Amino acid sequence: MPVRIVNLKVNGVDQAFMAKPETTLLLALREQLGLTGAKRGCAQGACGSCTVLLDGAPVVSCLVPAATVDGSAVATVEGLADGQELSDVQQAFIDGFATQCGFCTPGMIMSAEALLARNPDPTADEVNEAISGNVCRCTGYAPIVSAILDAARRRRDRAGQEATR
Amino acid sequence: MTLLYGRGFASVNYPTGMNLGGDPSQALIHATTMGGFVISLSSVDLGQGLKTVVAQCAAETLGMPMEQIIVDTADTDTGPHCMGTFASRGTHRVGNAVIMAAREAREVMLQVAADELEVDAGDLETDGSGYVRLKGSPAKQIHISDIALAAHFKQGKSISGRGMFLKERSYPVPETGEMDPDSCQAHACTVADVEVDDETGVVTVLRLHNTYEIGRALNPAMATQQVEGGAWMGVSHAIFESTEPYYPASRAHGPVDFSEYLMPGSGEIPEQTSVILERPSSNGPFGAKGIGEMTANAPIPAIANAIFDACGVRLTTMPFTPESVLRGLDALRDGA
Amino acid sequence: MARIDSEYFRDERSSDFTVIGTAVQRSDVLGHVTGRTEFMEDRTFPNLAHLKIHRSAHHHALITDVDYSEALKVPGVLRVITYKDVPENWYGVLRLIGIGPDDEPVLAEDRVLYKGEPIVAVVADSEAAALEGASKVKVTYTELPAVLDVEEAMLPETPVIKRAGTNYFVYEGHHARRIRFGDVEAGFAEADHIFEYRYSSAPIEHAPTETTGCIVVPQPGGRLLIHSNTQAAFFTLDNTALTLKRPFTDLQVKGGTVGGGFGGKVDVMVEPLACIAATMTNRPVKFVYTREEEMQVSSPRAAERIYIKDGVMNDGRIVARKIMLYVDAGAYARHSPYGATKAAAHLPGPYTIPNVYADCHCVYTNRTPSSAMRGFGVTIADFAIESQMDQVARALHIDPLEFRLRNAYRDGDVKAHRKVASGTALIEVIQSTAALVGHELPEEYRAMSSSTPRGAGA
Amino acid sequence: MLTEVHVPDDVSAAVRLLAGGATAIGGGTCVLPWLNDYASPPTELVSLRRAGLSGIRLHGDTVEIGAATTLAQVEHDDRLEDLNAVVRSIASTPVRNLATVGGNLFARQPHGDLAVALVALDARVTLVDETGSRELPVEELTNGAGLVTTVTFELPRPGTFRYVKAARRRYNSASLVTVAATVTEEEGTVTGARIALGGVGPRVIRAHAVEAALVGQELTADTVRAAGEAGRGEIEPADDAYASAWYRTRVFPVHLRRALLGH
Questions:
Q1: Alpha-carbon span D104 to C61, nearest angstrom
Q2: Hey, are the CB atoms on B259 and A137 less than 8 Å from each other?
Q3: How many C-beta atoms lie closer than 10 Å to residue A14's C-beta?
Q4: Secondary structure of residue B285 in the 3-state scheme
Q5: How far is D127 from chain B, CA to nearest CA, in Å?
Q6: How many CB atoms within 10 Å of residue A164?
Q7: Which residues in chain C are contacts of D37 at CB distance < 8 A?
Q8: Residue B22 has what pLDDT?
Q9: Which interval of the chain is the signal sequence (chain C) (predicted)?
Q10: pLDDT value of position C457
Q11: CB-based contact B237:A104 (threshold 8 Å)
């Protein structure tokens, strides 16, 4: 069975691993690089638990053959915090009681990060659309949407403070 | 196109725990050298927050701050028996077991402290910040880390406790069904407001107004998570979910993934207003009742009743799909 | 956060707590938002083998031949497991507490009772090889007529699909879990109005975001360590040991962090086979349901069919309620016999009715076996009861909340299962919700109280 | 079983591999779900990710979209306002960042809403195989026709393109009925109509009978209702997990009207 060496920049760090044909980006992250934040909830692209940023764009990593993204940059939930300093989205999820079982949380947070990177001031409905590929079975979504809107506010406030500094 | 609006009501109760073969859970608790308290369980946290709420129960009972509590759970080699996480039993059963274990440990803790302070244990109290102190003379106090050190290195004592909760098995009388099936009952009432599209049969749940009586909200934020997430599941059951969309006529077209298995997305969530009432149960931990399961139940009939209120279609089969609404509307129009 | 209305039950809820009643942050949340929470599948083991299942293609059939020779030829396939490799192939999840019969095989023997029933397990070096191997198993069937309707299953002329001889669970000699309270026929005779309606539901999946699964790791001393996302660690351990016919001390279950359960992870479906595979290969073995298996093969919430007949007086008092309830257990019992009992205990709902008659049937059909799910035995009954309440209230032109309040159970009332009610609060949740939406109730209904005995005051 | 994943750098290499029996993927969002969880015959994949087929070019009013352009690129391209909404009705953001324009042409119904829109826009594809390249209307495209390299169409005149997708959920839900239409009117009378339907058949349906019923008419509730009745004869809906054939047939005229009249 042909095996390739695949190079990725993962959370800013150069990584190389061996990929079999069936090795998806998700399995490579989880099983070869030890980054288990992205979850396998369906392997069908329909639950969003495996969402990571591929060259800045959120993708369902379960549907990406690892060999096809050689040389790309990948961001996962593990790379969001700066040491002990959580990202605004992570902190807003904590403060807003926006997690229950936590299985969807990493994917949900990556979708939220991607939204806020593109749109710093989203409406609630834009948040709804942005997380429509992320299934949560516990919370009923409302606290998640609130947390993402709250994170956007925090980020804008901080940007405002830095601008006036 | 006409959008029709309706309101529906439902009220329910729900049993805590079960009567199946007895309903036990056990807990062990012990202090570490520096006065951390490890709660050993085999109970499972499904995301409802059991690990947090039992730590609260232990902290309250011990009179210690939350930071002192460590929960070690779900290893069958180290944790004592727990029946499992189901039947709205986790908080009630495990909470009770933890309280019992914590009481026993607290007694030892106070005795060790009493020996160190050379006072009577009965005159001691905890202040919730980590100190055990003499009632009326707060200056005479000792920190839990010193108590634990003394227990381990001077007094040769284990600050520990065992807790068990058992709801004994109740055998239903075959002829009449006489039985004792629960420990207590929680309650809920839902008012649902819906919108019905009279051309497509699509039902939109606009608002849910809920009151829940849950005995005691041990953690109001997590209780809110439970009731509002559960109500969402009720909406989902009511208007979307089925593993056999053509039940019972055919088993074909069963959904195989999250695309086909329909649930409301965040674009379909109703506005929820929730109020919590507390009538502490006599046998619950600090009066708490089980609420995990009840929360999905009242929204379903409330939505069915609201659909009738909106458009005159009585739906008696779950889920209430656009097709079932539209067939009902067509029948009304044909009959008119 | 939900508002706590402390006006209700003021005298009963006096408290002096420090930690209880405060919004302490979840202890697991930091792990959740950083991706560090360790779920079952987040553990990786060298030399891990994978298990996949070949499943029944038919609802009901005799198995005439199983040929797995092609599966063994697939590169990477290590072992094929059939029922002959399962030490105690017949089980029932409730046998620990003496509830039988052990009516379900771990792997099918001479017949299958539902589409998707496991027949052969294939263990391989990779998931892909295990899938390939499972697909290469050839099963030859003789199809039998399938029974797919609960009421049809109960008819004497319907073929019996179960070894035990009936298409329903037998409750101490009865075809249903019974509730008999008062004299329901006398109640109907006395009533001013009779209302009878039918309700039903389709099966529902728990749909947790994390599928059911386990990883079994042979330990240096010969024990098996089971990393599982079970909802009940000892329940899983004890049942697995019984199936393996191994000492209970041979097994250790670790879990406790679960990506959603909702009742779907209490059936002990994956651990026994993974243990057998780990023992045969002496390698760590992972058996995790695919999403399709989770959606279509794992137990759903049972479909139910419920008939409710009410006798009601002109003033809105319900004087008799008769309920015929049918739980579609699917092909095997699992927790359904208990679910029907739980349903019976819930009847006639949170109302005090002097004459109650119920038969709660646990019926077998050739469908995916159903089992516990959030609100087990109650959720669908509540749909039926509360729809019934609405229909009756409308027919009698009584306000829907007043109709419920008039019949609401209170402390001291005797329930249909003859337990005296205490700690009730139905009246108050209705009053509170009415206030929440501005639904006006007359003074006599606002003055009602759960702790005031029926007939006294109000 | 997946036996190899090729990532060729140019179209000719891709074509050679496909001629050898390999399967092309754009984003892989249709093929990978199957390969991940189900046994399959030995399969070699050819990913078009690096084959130089990505990009959106406008020459005057002529739009040329490379087959490997993602749906997300279309979604965020201001020049393609009519298609922005079409694309947003398909799947979810993390899928649209993978799924491609070319791939969507082959998506199984009730998916493939972009293909519905492209048929209504009279789009053409360029196909390449070892014998050379040729053009084909999207409407006539079938599996195995060759490698799609580009999709070309004329930008519709402002206000002439209509699109409605009815689904069980607002976002990320397969089609019950998709209506895409390019309708030109002069002095209140329909002079041309090109209407495509999704969700109501095993493939994208070009609604000839609906078109015929509308041309020469004013767009009114009555004429659109008549067109919908005419269209019932050319749709072939099926039962699936989302809705029954009965339901799709029943509400098809409603959504046709909502697409054409806006209410």
A1: 40
A2: no
A3: 9
A4: helix
A5: 31
A6: 6
A7: 131, 290-292
A8: 84
A9: none
A10: 44
A11: no
Give Cα separations from B96 to B67, B92, C424 (angstroms): 21, 6, 21
Give the span between the Cα atoms of C21 and C41, in whole angstroms.
35
Nearest Cα to D140, choosing from D70, D59, D204?
D204
For D203, other C-beta atoms within 10 Å of its C-beta total 15
Q: Mean pLDDT per 10-residue run, chain B (336 residues)? A: 96 90 93 98 96 98 98 97 94 98 98 98 97 94 98 98 95 96 96 98 98 98 97 98 95 96 96 98 97 96 98 98 98 89
Q: Point out the domain boundary residue: B167, B194, B209.
A: B167
Percentage of residues of chain D with pLDDT beyond 70: 100
**Beta-carbon separation of B185 and C424 below 8 A:** yes
Question: Which residues, other chains included, contact D131 with Cβ-Cβ below 8 Å and sequence gap of 6+?
Answer: none
Domain that holds residue B42: 23-167
**Beta pairing class for D43-47 and D2-6:** parallel
Residues of A in contact with D88 (CB under 8 A): 129
Q: Does B233 touch chain A (CB under 8 A)?
A: yes
How far apart (Å, rounded) are the C-alpha atoms in residues C34 and C96?
Answer: 40
In terms of CATH, what superfamily is A4-79?
Answer: Beta-grasp domain (3.10.20.30)
What 3-state class would DSSP assign to D102?
helix
Give the Cα separation of A29 and D75 in Å (integer): 28
Contact B225 A143 (CB under 8 A): yes
**Mean pLDDT for chain C?**
96
| B190 and B270 share one domain | yes
Helix (H, G, I), strand (E, B) or coil at C41: helix
Contacts of D49 in chain A (CB under 8 A): 68-69
Contacts of C290 in chain D (CB under 8 A): 37
| Of C295, C209, D99, the residue nearest A63 (C-alpha) | D99
3-state SS track over C44-102? CCCCCEEEEEEECCCCCEEEEEEECHHHHHCCCEEEEECHHHCCCCEECCCHHHCCCCC
DSSP state of A82: B
Q: Give residue B183's region: left, alpha or beta (phi > 0; psi -120 to 50).
A: alpha
The set of long-range contacts for B108-112, using a CB threshold of 8 Å and a minimum separation of 24, is B108/B151, B108/B157, B108/B158, B108/B159, B108/B160, B108/B161, B109/B31, B109/B62, B109/B144, B109/B147, B109/B151, B109/B159, B111/B157, B112/B147, B112/B150, B112/B151, B112/B155, B112/B157, B112/B159
Spatial separation of the C-alpha atoms in residues C189 and C319, rounded to whole Å = 10
Contacts of D177 (CB under 8 A, 6+ apart): D164, D165, D166, D197, D198, D199, D200, D248, D251, D252, D255, D256
The one-letter amino acid at D33: P
Is B253 within 8 Å of chain D by CB?
Answer: yes
Residue B259 sits at the chain A interface (C-beta within 8 Å) = yes
Instruction: Return d(Cα C384, Cα C403) in angstroms, integer.
Output: 16
Distance CA A2, CA B112 (A): 67
Give C291→chain D minimum CA distance, Å: 8
Q: Is D212 left (phi over 0), alpha (psi -120 to 50) or beta?
A: alpha
Q: What is the pLDDT of residues D21-74, one digit of tens each?
A: 999 999 999 999 999 999 999 999 999 999 999 999 999 999 999 999 999 999
CA distance C26 to B48: 10
All structural domains of chain C, each given as residue ranges with its CATH number in brackets, are: 42-144+210-296 (3.90.1170.50), 146-204+300-398 (3.30.365.10)
Map out the domains of chain D with their CATH numbers.
Answer: 2-47 (3.30.43), 56-153 (3.30.465.10), 162-261 (3.30.390.50)
Residues of D in contact with B246 (CB under 8 A): 239, 244
Whether C321 has a pLDDT exceeding 60, the answer reads yes
Cα distance between residue C202 and residue C305, in whole Å = 9
The chains found to touch C (3+ Cβ pairs under 8 angstroms) are: A, B, D
Residues facing residue C138 across a β-bridge: C67
Count of residues in chain B: 336
